[in-house]
């Protein structure tokens, strides 16, 4: 078939789905939800994996960091690959890699092998994510695109909360391996639905910025590895040199994006749109919060309260319920209210809830004293995830929507990578301060700490660590104050 005939055929397929694009969205959401759940599903299983695989806290955090890093680094280029070779084809390829890597994760017997398997999971996720946003942008008419993106954004927010809950139930009932095995049937269903429902959209040529890929990938790896391993290696000279080299490469990447006259990975002209820039700052904060808050909270619940993985995960239910319950009404508000009002309320409510949680995170507190602030955080999050996604690309011309989607996804993932690395450093350092030796083994395991004094010190270490996500909520609140009124037709009606 000639390229023209191929474009015509795929154009017809797209046109057929244009009349009812929602089934396509739901088909994509299944796979997208699954890969985002895996960003946080490990957090509640952390104590069990530490015990079963004889691992340290830092090593188990690397199980999540490796996934996030492999997810974040290629995501800028995989969007362009989808444009060149077909978004549907790249999505299905990524889903296949992700599902097979999930089987590998569940079959591993050492923490090192688990980290390697998670890298391949992350690569599969990186192939999938940009395709979902790009397909939505192309198949939905402008009048429905905001609602579709609100669903997409809400899916991200709900998945970040459902991950630990699902992880707790599976770890408690079947074993930590099943937090990965569960992806196999879900992946098969997602593959069949995408194969049948997602149209093969027309492709077009791209020049690929491989130098940009190398610079950004090397910068992210050096920064993440240096930050996460810094405390454990006593901030040795070579660790500081890695961090400095990562910063230097990041600067070189930005300079190269400015100088590249062909097709840069990150068109810097995107950031001339204030709302796009602010949305990227907000979603970076949310990415870091989603990656960071679960580790200290789940360790506290299981080591101090003596909760099972399921009981620990249930502490997050109020947050998940409020996020899900409010997703639709908040989506409607996004088209009528100034984004500064919507996201400002969201970050403020989440910050208040988180500060209450920090205050009450002590041995012996009643469940409701944790559930109430978690619910408040969930209310706030509902006003952040979907509206931020809907606002990010709202003012951009359609020709830049694909590039904007890739940058937005990459920014969220960069925030997640750095959040996971930073929380590992904080937990390690605070445990070393209050309970020398606990960061390696022992008190960080799955069993409840029997000594009340030790339990109190462990709680303090986890409280101190949770100041990181609290600070990121505060940064996000400041950032969203810079939103301007959207320029799209029909705003405010």
Automatic annotation (TrEMBL):
Residues 24-488 form the Major facilitator superfamily (MFS) profile domain. It is found in: Cell membrane. The keyword Lipoprotein does not apply. Gene3D superfamilies: MFS general substrate transporter like domains, Multidrug resistance protein D. It comes from the Bacteria. It is a multi-pass membrane protein. The keyword Secreted does not apply. One of its GO terms (cellular component) is plasma membrane. Keywords: Cell membrane, Membrane, Transmembrane, Transmembrane helix, Transport. The chain crosses the membrane at residues 24-48, 60-78, 90-109, 148-170, 176-195, 207-229, 235-256, 277-300, 312-330, 342-359, 365-386, 466-483. GO terms for molecular function: transmembrane transporter activity. InterPro entries: EmrB-like (IPR004638), MFS (IPR011701), MFS_dom (IPR020846), MFS_trans_sf (IPR036259). CDD domains: MFS_MMR_MDR_like. Belongs to the major facilitator superfamily. EmrB family. PANTHER family: EXPORT PROTEIN, MAJOR FACILITATOR SUPERFAMILY MULTIDRUG TRANSPORTER MFSC. This is DHA2 family efflux MFS transporter permease subunit. The lineage of its organism: Bacteria, Bacillati, Actinomycetota, Actinomycetes, Propionibacteriales.
């Amino acid at each position: 078939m000639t390229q023209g005939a191929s474009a015509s055929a795929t154009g017809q397929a797209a046109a057929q789905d244009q009349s009812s694009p929602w089934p396509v969205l739901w088909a994509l959401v299944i796979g997208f939800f699954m890969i985002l759940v895996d960003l946080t599903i490990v957090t509640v299983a952390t104590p069990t994996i530490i015990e079963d695989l004889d691992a340290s806290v830092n090593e188990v955090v690397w199980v999540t960091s490796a996934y996030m890093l492999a997810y974040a680094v290629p995501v800028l280029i995989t969007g362009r690959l989808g444009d060149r070779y077909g978004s549907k084809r790249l999505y299905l390829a990524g889903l296949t890699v992700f599902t097979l890597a999930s089987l590998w994760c569940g079959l591993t017997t050492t923490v090192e092998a688990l980290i390697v398997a998670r890298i391949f999971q992350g690569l599969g996720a990186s192939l999938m994510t940009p395709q979902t946003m790009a397909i939505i942008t192309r198949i939905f008419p402008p009048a429905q695109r905001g609602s579709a993106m609100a669903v997409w954004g809400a899916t991200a927010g709900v998945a970040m909360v459902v991950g630990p809950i699902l992880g707790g139930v599976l770890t408690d009932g079947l074993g930590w391996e099943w937090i990965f095995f569960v992806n196999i049937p879900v992946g098969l269903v997602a593959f069949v639905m995408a194969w049948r429902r997602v149209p093969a959209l027309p492709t077009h040529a791209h020049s690929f910025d491989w130098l940009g890929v190398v610079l950004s990938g090397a910068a992210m790896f050096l920064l993440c590895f240096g930050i996460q391993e810094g405390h454990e290696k006593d901030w040795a000279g070579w660790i500081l040199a890695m961090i400095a080299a990562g910063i230097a490469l990041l600067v070189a990447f930005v300079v190269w994006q400015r100088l590249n006259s062909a097709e840069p990975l990150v068109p810097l002209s995107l950031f001339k749109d204030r709302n796009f820039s602010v949305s990227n700052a907000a979603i970076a904060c949310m990415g870091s919060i989603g990656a960071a808050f679960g580790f200290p909270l789940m360790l506290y619940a299981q080591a101090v309260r003596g909760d099972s993985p399921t009981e620990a995960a249930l502490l997050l239910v109020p947050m998940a319920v409020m996020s899900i319950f409010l997703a639709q009404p908040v989506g409607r508000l996004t088209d009528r209210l100034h984004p500064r009002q919507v996201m400002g309320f969201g970050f403020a409510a989440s910050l208040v809830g988180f500060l209450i949680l920090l205050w009450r995170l002590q041995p012996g507190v009643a469940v409701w004293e944790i559930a109430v602030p978690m619910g408040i955080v969930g209310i706030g999050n509902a006003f952040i995830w979907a509206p931020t996604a809907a606002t990010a690309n709202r003012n951009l011309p359609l020709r830049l929507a694909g590039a904007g989607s890739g940058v937005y996804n990459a920014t969220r993932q960069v925030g997640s990578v750095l959040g996971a690395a930073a929380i590992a450093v904080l937990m390690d350092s605070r445990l070393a301060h209050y309970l020398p030796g606990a960061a390696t083994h022992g008190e960080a395991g799955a069993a409840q700490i029997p000594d009340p004094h030790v339990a109190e010190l462990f709680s303090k270490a986890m409280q101190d660590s949770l100041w990181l996500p609290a600070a990121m909520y505060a940064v996000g609140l400041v950032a969203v104050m810079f939103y301007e009124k959207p320029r799209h037709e029909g705003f405010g009606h």
